Amino acid sequence: MTEKTPLYDSHLAAGGRMVDFAGWIMPVNYGSQIEEHKAVRADAGMFDVSHMTIIDIEGPDAEAFLRSTIANDVAPLLDNQALYSALLNEKGGILDDLIVYRLENSFRCVVNASTRKKVLDWFALNAFTNMTLTHKPQIMIAVQGPKAMQRLSEVAVIPQLSELKAFYAMAFGDWLIGRTGYTGEDGVEVMLPIDQGIQLWQQLRDVGVVPAGLGARDTLRLEAGLNLYGQDMDETTSPLVSNIAWTVAWNPPERDFIGRSALEAQRGNVGEKLVGLVLEEKGILRHDQKVITNAGDGSITSGTYSPSLEYSIGLARVPADASGHCQVDIRGKMKEALLVKPPFVRKGKDLVAKTTT
Amino acid sequence: MSEIPNEIKYAATHEWARLEEDGIVTVGISDHAQKALGDVVFVEMPELGLTISEGEEAGVVESVKAASDIYSPIRGEVIEVNSKLDDAPQTVNEDPYGEGWFFKLQPQDLADLDELLDAEAYAEVCDAEDH
């Protein structure tokens, strides 16, 4: 029961090594994950993210629905502005993380592929009377890297593209272009109809944008200190222990979103935190390895080799008072590591050196 | 298609074993294995002097993606490890049957090699995994 995105044939043509991801057959790499990663940091790469779920919410109750359903507040958003938010259950656990755009007459949510059914069901369950939820399959291509904007303007004449601000979107014909991403680099995510998307992918390849797979997407987001849903956070963890407390809009206090009362009870009283970790010895940090800190034990949620830094980095959930040096149990061997504040790399720059917690 | 040289033997777990002229057996991982792993970024070698049996864990190869155990294809004593992989683990991707070897064994019994797969049988193992 695996699904294919409309760019499946394009991936095969580019030599994509296809794997099953959350019920989708997706390219993990096109030869070398490290080269794809470096292309995004130094030039421009592109990802097929059409497996993500686009949900449009329209109607007079759309804004009230989102204000009661997600932890960040859409009320202050200007037209075409976007925000990142967690979607919580009653216990304050994270059901998903998403990006919401306020468009002229609607809101557009982009949620994860792995949580599609759960979120669609949750939205339907909590829907207000005067609103509609529409899930329309489109192609979504993330073009990322310092040259991303330049490459996109080489293949499409898009007025005012260069003036598009971070976390804003613009319509261009049938396209919606958001200056967003999951890599820590400049770039856009373009949502567009299927036939135009297949064409855009090919045009971007023709001007040298490097197709990049899920592997590079994971190392880039981890260097950028961005959480992966289902790995760094899930229904058992709240935003307050997931390094995204900043996405919870406490004001106005009368906005009663789902999970608020549970979060209020945790506030100022959390026992854990999600931090960055750098390995000071040879080896690779991996999910579920034990971390021994000055304040007790914790656990790695994501770990990998960092192609930009050329050593291993990770995210770990550790006791709230933990800091400084720690040890990681890698197959029974204790290795020295250091707790740091993510991100590790943004806009091509090494941020680890000066971020020791 | 992966390269599968005829003159060496293979384990179903994707290690290869080559009998050298001096009676020593060199061990590495196959081209198929390195392709499946992706970019290799770290190799944990067995300790020198360790005596291992066939199928026993003899180290770990880590790609950006994941960690995979390396199993010894035959019985023997580890007499040399490829220390070049410490600083250049990507050699495993670049030259899996040559410079990217992992360790050398003083074999306990050369007859162990007869139990391993030849190139043709190993190709079938790879084909089965690809489908």
What does this structure look like?
- The complex is a heterodimer of chains A (357) and B (131).
- By secondary structure, chain A is an alpha+beta fold.
- Chain A has a 6-stranded mixed β-sheet with strand order 10-11-12-9-3-13. Chain A has a 6-stranded antiparallel β-barrel with strand order 14-17-16-15-18-19. In chain A, strands 5-6-7-4-8 form a 5-stranded antiparallel β-sheet, covered by helices on one side.
- Chain A has helices at residues 8-13, 33-42, 62-69, 116-126, 148-155, 194-206, 214-223, 260-266; strands spanning 17-21, 24-29, 45-48, 53-58, 82-88, 94-102, 106-111, 132-135, 139-144, 169-172, 175-178, 187-192, 210-211, 272-279, 290-293, 296-306, 311-319, 325-330, 333-340, 345-346, 349-350.
- By secondary structure, chain B is an alpha+beta fold.
- In chain B, 21% of the residues lie in helices and 32% in strands.
- Chain B contains 4 helices and 9 strands, in the order βββαβββββααβα.
- Chain B has helices at 31-37, 84-87, 91-94, 119-130; strands at 9-10, 15-19, 25-29, 40-44, 51-52, 57-63, 67-71, 76-81, 103-107.
- The relative contact order of chain B is 0.26.
- The interface between A and B is medium-sized, with 17 and 12 residues.
Provide key terms for this protein:
heterodimer; A: 357 residues; alpha+beta; 6-stranded mixed beta sheet; 6-stranded antiparallel β-barrel; 20% helix; globular; B: 131 residues; 3-stranded antiparallel beta sheet; 21% helix
Cα shape of chain A? globular
What's the Cα radius of gyration of chain A?
Answer: 20 Å
Largest contact between protein chains?
A-B, 17 and 12 residues
- Total strand segments of chain B: 9
**How would the global form of chain B be characterised?**
globular
Mean pLDDT of chain A equals 96
Secondary-structure blueprint:
The complex is a heterodimer of chains A (357) and B (131).
Chain A: H1 8-13, E1 17-21, E2 24-29, H2 33-42, E3 45-48, E4 53-58, H3 62-69, E5 82-88, E6 94-102, E7 106-111, H4 116-126, E8 132-135, E9 139-144, H5 148-155, E10 169-172, E11 175-178, E12 187-192, H6 194-206, E13 210-211, H7 214-223, H8 260-266, E14 272-279, E15 290-293, E16 296-306, E17 311-319, E18 325-330, E19 333-340, E20 345-346, E21 349-350
Parallel strand pairs in A: 3-13
Antiparallel strand pairs in A: 1-2, 3-9, 4-7, 4-8, 5-6, 6-7, 9-12, 10-11, 11-12, 14-17, 14-19, 15-16, 15-18, 16-17, 18-19, 20-21
Helix pairs in contact in A: 2-7
Chain B: E1 9-10, E2 15-19, E3 25-29, H1 31-37, E4 40-44, E5 51-52, E6 57-63, E7 67-71, E8 76-81, H2 84-87, H3 91-94, E9 103-107, H4 119-130
Antiparallel strand pairs in B: 1-2, 2-3, 3-9, 4-6, 5-8, 6-7, 8-9
